[in-house]
Amino acid sequence: MSSVLSSLSSAGSLPGGVLAWVLGGLLLAAIFWPRRGLVARWRSARRLAVRTRQEDALKHILKSEVNGRSASVASVAGVLKVGEDRAAGVLAELERGGLLSFEGGAPRLRPAGRELAQHVVRAHRLWESFLADQTGLGEAEWHRRAERQEHLLTQAQTEALAAKLGHPLHDPHGDAIPAEGEGLAADRGRLLTDVEAGAHVDVVHVEDEPEAVYRKLRALGLQPGMSAEVRVKSPEGVRLQVADLGEVELNSMLANNVTVVVRPAGASARGTGGVPLAVLPEGASARVAGLAPGCRGAERRRLLDLGFVPGTEVVVELKSPNGDPTAYRVRGAVIALRREQAAHIRTTALERAVA
Amino acid sequence: MADAITLPSPANSADDILREARRLREGITGDVHEHLVEAIYTDAARIADRAVTRPDRAARPTFDRTLDRIVTSRVWGFPVMLALFAVMFWLTVSGANVPSAMIADVLIGQSYPWLRDAAASLGFPWWLRGVLVDGMYLATAWVISVMLPPMAIFFPMFTLLEDFGYLPRVAFNLDHLFKKAGAHGKQSMSTMMGFGCNAAGVVATRIIDSPRERLIAILTNNFALCNGRWPTQILVATLFIGGLVPAHLAGFVSAAAVVGVALLGVALTFATSWLLSRTVLRGEVSTFSLELPPYRPPRFWRTLYTSIIDRTLIVLWRAVVFALPAGAVIWLSANVHVGGASVAEHVIHGLNPLGLALGLNGVILLAYIVAIPANEIIIPTVLMLTVLSAKLTGVGEGAGVMFELDSDEAVKGILTAGGWTVLTGVNLMLFSLLHNPCSTTIYTIYKETGSARWTAVATLLPVAAGFALTFLVATVWRWVG
């Protein structure tokens, strides 16, 4: 220990002036270094923040336009979570940049603005698809991360991403991803609150904002691609019979964030129905009906690889000492799956005649 | 859907075709590629069902089913597992002594003096003989004699259990624990392999098919106390911890200390896995699958052959490749003199402040730097460096040559003369668990991950943990004592 102290104190024998100059120089370099210094970083962060606000405003106006609503300074302020003065300032910047014009007091996109807004929407939805399919990040993170990434992706990067993902048409929330250079389509379907009782519907979109509502919907397990029947409808809310989940109750606030299309009478239900494999007792056997829509990406491919394909017979073979994972016999192999995975696999009862 | 397809007339442009394709795709829910995959699997299954006839017998033999019921039961699952591994480790540790002594006798007791004489009679200058024989040859001979027998015993036993089909059941039993740490049950297998040899443990993570869990298993494998570190642990525990209690308890207490260090390693494996899966590895893809293959009689000779060739010899070869230059470095550092003292003494002097703050000393730190090829040569290196730096005379085989002593008391005498206390012993045991992996393992991690970044993390993470823990223990110790 003592020699550590003595070596430290020997540093004090350097001429104090030299040390001060060196430290001062390093400090100045850290602040003013081009591109890496604190000032440069602060300025690029500022530029990004300004661009983010502008692009978010354009995105909002585009979405309003295609869905037949009209955007206003107040609605822009609401989306950007800033005061109206600030929002008016952002719109004025955009007007000076030739991205939008005011017609009768309402902001209208000009071609350059529309193109930029479409790119941002496309980048956002592609990035969400990427996060859902190719990373292990949970659903709660997709939207937040895509909100940031949409402003960072260039045109070329967005195209490369689309090609890598196989040009998907819908993001994980069920929204259409516009093709390159093509206009944004109006949102499909109707809000769940606008549908009559007794209708058979397909969920096409689950709104990811505001976050608190989205979290509740996610906890219920409602996802795009599921089929449901509207059982009861009242001003307080909606009761649904969902093919993959059973009965689900939504209050009107939640129902207002779910978009559905009404299925014509006679069309077959989407979704897979049936009982999740995870709830079957040891020794039971069943037939795979399909995989839940929420099971995506690597996880889905893995289950298919293992042979959990519609029509396959599965036997619950063995539970581990703690009850999870459980081993299943499928196509002659014994495969252990964790509970969450087995919950993705829907099964129907085995017809006795075949067995 | 078929009625929706209207074939475009040849006059239509490519754009029309693309638009039509897009329109058709919009009618399909979900990912079109997945629909294709699903359809292909379904077709394949249907064809197979039609074409393949199976002999009329039970899908799973009753023997398998009964055995599975026992080895995965709530009552018997864990006791069976613990008993099997206790036997395996006992066989490895106690069974390796005899062949180790034999190899050491041949390579060090007989060949080494002969090589020295041969070098002398061929007229080699003293320094060339020193580098080649006292440095490179001796270090390599040491590594082989200590490393080969335990691996040659442990790996075949491990492979036999694997071949029989028991190990996947262990992963099945333990997955619950690993899941809580964000890891894969199969990590239990690579960790157990790590108790034999970390380099082999890292290779064994290949069985984990999920990228994130595999990386976790690689990064934490070093927390499994490998064969090369057991002798150090046992020796130091016997000398310093066993010496604290009455003689009739000494054996038990020192064994408990060694097991305690190994369990600390297991606890750190879980803690680090938990931390990694929630921080740096959060976004990596994670899937789980574990096949429980049917039991089958192990193919004994074939298993023996492949485990010796694939695991033992490959690991040994890599260790030898690294031991040769390290032997030269060790010898040179002890025998090249600058300003009246050897290089090693200068370095030890420089490392002493850090070493003492950690409750260790400069000799131990230098020993861990130069003995990076294999943990097996830590004790001989420490003895050599202690004799060198404390200027002891009359022990060892000559200046700057690694050696081991037959009696534990003689070892303790040298170490005490070198300034060792009980704290040094305790912290050496901790540092032996928590320091960088040996060079063979580092190289293997690089080969397996293909990433210099993850290799650096795997190397530096345990060192940082070791520094932190030993510093903490030393500070508390000095504060209390």
Walk me through the topology.
The complex is a heterodimer of chains A (355) and B (481).
Chain A: H1 2-11, H2 16-32, H3 38-66, H4 73-80, H5 84-96, E1 100-103, E2 106-109, H6 111-134, H7 139-149, H8 155-164, E3 190-191, E4 200-206, H9 211-220, E5 227-234, E6 237-242, E7 246-251, H10 252-255, E8 258-262, E9 275-276, E10 285-291, H11 297-305, E11 313-319, E12 326-330, E13 333-337, H12 339-344, E14 345-348
Helix pairs in contact in A: 3-6, 4-5, 6-7, 6-8
Chain B: H1 14-26, H2 32-51, H3 62-71, H4 77-95, H5 97-121, H6 126-164, H7 167-180, H8 187-196, H9 198-204, H10 211-220, H11 230-241, H12 247-278, E1 290-291, H13 300-335, E2 337-338, E3 341-342, H14 343-357, H15 362-370, H16 378-389, H17 408-417, H18 422-433, H19 439-449, H20 452-480
Index terms:
heterodimer; A: 355 residues; alpha+beta; Arc Repressor Mutant, subunit A; SH3 type barrels; 43% helix; 20% strand; globular; B: mainly alpha; two-stranded antiparallel ribbon; 20 helices; elongated
Kindly describe this structure.
Chain A is built from twelve helices and 14 strands. Chain A has 355 residues and is of the alpha+beta class. Among the domains of chain A are: 71 residues, Arc Repressor Mutant, subunit A (Orthogonal Bundle), CATH 1.10.10; 73 residues, Ferrous iron transport protein A (FeoA) (SH3 type barrels, Roll), CATH 2.30.30.90; 74 residues, Ferrous iron transport protein A (FeoA) (SH3 type barrels), CATH 2.30.30. In chain A, the strands form three sheets. In chain A, strands 3-8-4-5-6-7 form a six-stranded antiparallel β-sheet. In chain A, helix 4 crosses helix 5. The N terminus of chain A is likely disordered. By secondary structure, chain B is an all-alpha fold. Chain B contains 20 helices and three strands. In chain B, strand 2 and strand 3 form a beta hairpin. The model of chain B has no long low-confidence stretch (mean pLDDT 85). Chains A and B meet through helix 1, helix 11, strand 11 and strand 13 of A and helix 1, helix 2, helix 7, strand 1 and helix 14 of B. Strand 13 of chain A pairs antiparallel with strand 1 of chain B, so a sheet runs across the interface.
